[in-house]
């Protein structure tokens, strides 16, 4: 059932994004009286699951859920159907329209993707606000594992800047560290700058250890899970754990380390409760989980937005996501980090979906993925929207239209590049599945 929920979420997100993206091409094409022969959700290689012709357009659903398309008459596209182009241009064909109209038709999908993300982020900020932990509010510094140490960080560091840029939010600092070259921290009262090693990033991507860094906090309990070891021991919300077996544990990571190394052992837990010290006995279960949630209200803040305030904030969030995605390419193309091995295809993306339905995640992921599709589609690669835009801009600047032979050759080259990329991401997905069973 959990896998089914993941698949349904993925297919629904992809379906909405594809339909809206293709509408971005379809509507201006219709407005400029250009004939649209097909409008398909998913690809109909050899056959389709459903199709119905309304007017001049065949609407359908293909069986291969890797995208979708609109087939516009008189246009060289991925179908490589050039028979129509051998005839004299007709007024309702794409090739007969002015360059500026063709440009609007080709950029329509990308524009819709960007606007969709902007609208979603605006509504999320308006409804939920923006909850985060400020980077400058980490009074106890950070906690890192062995991967974080390999990157050059140390537990207790206070992050000041990444690549000379101050980061407002802690979760953004995590991404900045992955994408950055150096970090400035306060360590033992001294401000120092350390390089972020490519070797550490290689280990991070190879192990997918994205929890290499966390914020350091006191071990103050916000909730005790029912029927848990913690409840049986007598722990209560509001308790602050300050010791184990007579040894001081000032922070949650210190207590967690003690728990992890004491499976099946009986521990004497010292807590502060209403200004008094209490001692409780607790036996750590085999799974090492005692059933408590931390109280981090002293670290987190929530920015609230009115609807009018959420509109520019949503735009800023969209631009930030786009900028971060562009920055990721620097890491992906750096062979030393091995990040290219972790590029995910449909199988990997399905695995990222939550196993229970989460509307906040659903809309947040859709907005992020919409920005990602806009960015990928506008790349100047033939066979993508950006490839068509590239040729159109050349035509508008030079006043000369590229020959159909050039357009066909470019389409073939772009198609080969895209197929190679798809083989890479599917290969990564399959290899990551195999590794789980090795």
TrEMBL record:
<feature type="transmembrane region" description="Helical">
    <location>
        <begin position="103"/>
        <end position="126"/>
    </location>
</feature>
<dbReference type="GO" id="GO:0046872">
    <property type="term" value="F:metal ion binding"/>
</dbReference>
<dbReference type="InterPro" id="IPR036034">
    <property type="entry name" value="PDZ_sf"/>
</dbReference>
<dbReference type="Pfam" id="PF02163">
    <property type="entry name" value="Peptidase_M50"/>
</dbReference>
<keyword id="KW-0472">Membrane</keyword>
<comment type="similarity">
    <text>Belongs to the peptidase M50B family.</text>
</comment>
<feature type="domain" description="PDZ">
    <location>
        <begin position="191"/>
        <end position="250"/>
    </location>
</feature>
<feature type="transmembrane region" description="Helical">
    <location>
        <begin position="7"/>
        <end position="27"/>
    </location>
</feature>
<keyword id="KW-0645">Protease</keyword>
<dbReference type="GO" id="GO:0016020">
    <property type="term" value="C:membrane"/>
</dbReference>
<keyword id="KW-0812">Transmembrane</keyword>
<dbReference type="InterPro" id="IPR008915">
    <property type="entry name" value="Peptidase_M50"/>
</dbReference>
<dbReference type="InterPro" id="IPR004387">
    <property type="entry name" value="Pept_M50_Zn"/>
</dbReference>
<dbReference type="InterPro" id="IPR001478">
    <property type="entry name" value="PDZ"/>
</dbReference>
<protein>
    <recommendedName>
        <fullName>Zinc metalloprotease</fullName>
        <ecNumber>3.4.24.-</ecNumber>
    </recommendedName>
</protein>
<keyword id="KW-0482">Metalloprotease</keyword>
<dbReference type="Pfam" id="PF17820">
    <property type="entry name" value="PDZ_6"/>
</dbReference>
<feature type="transmembrane region" description="Helical">
    <location>
        <begin position="361"/>
        <end position="384"/>
    </location>
</feature>
<keyword id="KW-0862">Zinc</keyword>
<keyword id="KW-1133">Transmembrane helix</keyword>
<dbReference type="InterPro" id="IPR041489">
    <property type="entry name" value="PDZ_6"/>
</dbReference>
<dbReference type="GO" id="GO:0006508">
    <property type="term" value="P:proteolysis"/>
</dbReference>
<keyword id="KW-0479">Metal-binding</keyword>
<feature type="transmembrane region" description="Helical">
    <location>
        <begin position="412"/>
        <end position="434"/>
    </location>
</feature>
<dbReference type="GO" id="GO:0004222">
    <property type="term" value="F:metalloendopeptidase activity"/>
</dbReference>
<keyword id="KW-0378">Hydrolase</keyword>
